[in-house]
Amino acid sequence: MEQSGTSPLLLGTVQDLAAGVVSALRGGDHAPSANRAAVDDGAEQLLLAAVRVTGADLLLPNVLLRTRPDEAELTVFRKAVDAFPPRPDTAPAIRWSHWAMTRTLRRFEPPGPQGHGGDGPPEPEATWLDDASWQTLTHRLAVLAALAVPDVDCAVTRAARRRPVDVARGFVRAVRRRDWQQAAGAGRWLTLLDGVPSTLGLEAGLDFVELMGDTDPRVTLQVQAARTIRTGVFV
To answer: Half-sphere exposure of residue 67, counting CA atoms within 13 Å on the CB side?
Structure first.
């Protein structure tokens, strides 16, 4: 989830969280997010907001590598889900981001009244993707790159599967426009899609995106996620 009015302090915290996810995906140390929280309420609220912006990708290493999250980190993730529920006027992308977080949380919690586990949450509507131009589709999918994981089947993933060539066109356009976040998110989606043109050169393209966007851990997170998915080390 990206916010146009993101403060520098919040952005820095989001980037720190993204760097931790990258480290975990690469097999390095991954300090639980809860360890970053200070004792005052303001620091905790900043952390929860940063977790909400990072979204389901905060637990991506656990999802892909089939590991159990640190309990303190899971607690922070749960608090962020509960602290920022969608409002009636919430934009569809934010509804889907919250859905992805809730679905991820339920992977790791027992069912029943004491946890969030059990059946997956109901999907938000996705008709806003049906008639999107290829440019708009790529932008919206990149914003929702946290949904690009192998075992997620939902209306957003089905929309992406129907239009692999359009997503490939969007990836190339994002690279040409030097929009590294959008390119990285689109590239992550392309690792999951059948029918991607062989002439795209996705692997080399992802290397280039990482090189050019290496000052932003959020770009590196998407590229590393794509690589982990492509290698299948999580299976």
So the answer is: 15
Neighbouring C-alpha atoms within 13 Å toward the C-beta of 231: 11
Distances (CA, A) of 230 to 21, 56, 67, 68, 147: 17, 19, 19, 22, 15
Are both 80 and 148 inside the same structural domain?
no
Q: Check if the beta carbon of residue 73 is closer than 8 Å to that of residue 32.
A: yes
Q: How many CB atoms lie within 10 A of CB 82?
A: 12
Would you state the structure tokens that stand for residue 230, as one six-digit string?
């492509």
187 sits in which H/E element? helix 180-190
Instruction: Say if residues 156 and 191 touch (Cβ distance below 8 Å).
Output: no
| 101 and 145 in a common domain | no
With beta carbons less than 8 A apart as the criterion, state whether 175 and 209 touch. yes
Domain that holds residue 4: 1-124
Q: How confident is the model at residue 27 (pLDDT cuts 50, 70, 90)?
A: confident
Closest to 1 (Cα-Cα) out of 155, 224, 218: 218
> What is the domain count for the chain?
2
DSSP three-state, residue 111: strand
Let me know whether 96 and 156 are in one domain.
no
Q: Does 141 lie in the same domain as 49?
A: no
Q: Which amino acid is at 157?
A: T
Q: Is the pLDDT of residue 34 over 80?
A: no
